[in-house]
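pasting for ref
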Amino acid sequence: MKRTRLLSVSLLVALLLPVMVVAQKIELEKTYKITNASKRGALSNVEYNKDAGYSLTYVTKSNEKMAKFQIYNFDKEFNFINMVEDEQEFEKAKTKYKWFKYKGEEYSVEGMYVEKNLVGTLVLKRKLITYKYDWFWGGYHPTTKVLEKVKPRTEDGRTFFYYTHAEDDVTGDVSILVGARDKKDQWGFSKNFSVLRFNNKLDLVKEVKFTLDYPQSLAFSRVFDKPNPEDPDNPMFGGMIFVFAPMGGPGMGKVENENRNAYTYVRVNENLEIVDNIPFQSFSSYWKIDEAIRDVNTDDIYLYGPSAAGKDKYFQMSLNTTKFKAVQLMKVSNHQVAFFTETNLEEFKSKLQLPPSQRKSPEYEGKRFEIANYYIAGNGDFFVVGQNYDESKEGNKYNDVIGFQFDNKGVLKSQYGIDTKESNKYAKAAGAPQSLVPSQDGNYMYWLLLEIKGVTMFKGKVLTYPRIGKINLATGKVADFLDVRGPENDYYLDPKFPFIEMEDHNEIVFFGSDKPGKTIWFVKLKVEN
């Protein structure tokens, strides 16, 4: 299924949610050398048991039928207990180790490839996805081959204008937003919409239609996942949302909507049923929506992004705008707009907060800004964290880290400006992964910022270390960040398991290794009220 991933940091959030950090203090730090066999293999599983301690499992290929497991056991203070070796046939290993998802050295899945031609007409092709197992990394790497063009099986022979689509890798279905081609109405494709669902045999199994009064552009779309009980690592299609903005300009005449700010929000659920069709007034005719966030607890949707200063152009005429004067935040709850706010740059500047010991005063200036993560706090506050960046011939160049805190009505509480420590070419090229974690009492938010130190030749591992800051939700102030660097500042987080999930809410454990990956590294942070 196609979906947006926010800098791959969603994994960090999932691992950290059970951990309620309140104050940072390094309590314990230890290292241990693993075997050469483990180093050559892949760390495939990490477990914590509050009674026994920690268990780390490395996997290598023994022969064409067998996998070899080396399991390291440590007590709760990171003291080495033992290392157990196990060798199993692949099929038996999958039964014994539920996390071992080996399906053979290589396997293929057929699916559909969706695109549009030069005039925007929907085109469907077959595709073949081949998954090849990499024992060095411990997972499958897919390659996709696009095959022949196919004609979708519709009874009336209609043609469609393509807008966007979502693939369900579990069922093989694809859901596609299209506009209906109409010879009698040249703008019909921008008013008469359908969401089509095809199965992997190219049969049209469902269609839902909706019509807008005036021609509108697709300003934004997003796909939501649905948990897959059979395979938690492979979610299913959970619905889509679309935001439309009025079209206008030369050649459109009287068909355009004179109200340039008359947007429409549409949501379809996992069964392709329309659950929301909500007209609303944007503060600006050009709203560059960056992301839609779904609150899994309430099913509320938050739409966030900057808006342009000029209000005299239609959406599609402003697409190249790079300078913004405000940010808009909208919440949809119970099938209606719960709040919709606009915050201008002057207000952002007036509410800037910095760590006490920081001299530099970075802030959002309405220019290029990339979102790293979002978080909805227990009190309803909405957080956005990301980085300012500049464009160059070599790609984006990231610099200052910025965060925003809005209250439960969408009003800005604080803007946070954080000066990054690393400015090497890797840090500037990739940007820093970030996540937010609430304290146990709900009074604080902990900001985890992963600084990129470099890249090692061993497995091409990105070298990151964490910095942790604390935000007071009530006052909107941020404390100084604590750096966690390891012995001689030369240890880095494991790219697959940077944090070990804990049952004890009074501590958090970072996990990593030295550059070659031979010496593993544990750090326990004591967290106190």
